[in-house]
Amino acid sequence: MTDAKTLSYINLYAILGTLENLCELDSKAKDLLKGLKKPVSIGFDVKGGPSATITFTKNGCRMEDGLHPCDIKLPFSSPEKFNGMIDGTVTPIPSKGFTKINFLLKTFVALTDRLGELMRPTPEALEDRDFFELSTTLTFYTIAVALAQIGNQDEIGKHSASYMVDGDIHFGIGDSLAATLRVKNHHLVTIKKAPENPRAIMKFADLDLASALFNNQANALECVCNGSIEIHGMASMIDNMNRLLDRVALYLA
What are the backbone dihedrals phi and psi of residue 30, each rounded to the nearest 5 degrees, phi first? Predict the structure, then answer.
């Protein structure tokens, strides 16, 4: 079972939050922003759910937690309405920023369409190695952030987080991609870089293995046994992070 409130946190922070990485890594996304003369910020305000502000510049974008002064404000009356925007069944109506509506309807929509293309790729698209690597990288960052949202919002996830001791978990792929899952008083935060002093490590050997695991095409236990999944450190942190990963798969399915 999943719930709409938890999904709204995942959709905002993990899905839309991955626009940061898309705009940094993808040439098509960069092209969409390069003509931007001044920064444009969009505030998302979900009643009974999360709020965040994304600021776009010609050099990329950045998400901040909470509703800050913004050029465009998108209010949602419930988590369900916000989730509807993400799955394309609800059209948001700005309460502020009608003069910037062209950015919202053209640039922002084009960026989210590009993100969707990469996050839900066709088998044919994945045959292109560059596309495959970008798709898997963006999926990794989305999953890393979703772990924290599930640990903080989902009832089953909160139960798992209650058994996690304070400290940092290194979650990574090879030596090129890493994120930190920081635990403090059973509250989780994801930081999109490697921790300096992790208490636990979960690292996949390479992008190919990570993609296979993300898509349920590899046996995780077998990978642990053959060393292609590297696990070290505090066992209780790894064990409960695995439980959170199972919940991530349900929400992102």
Answer: -60, -40
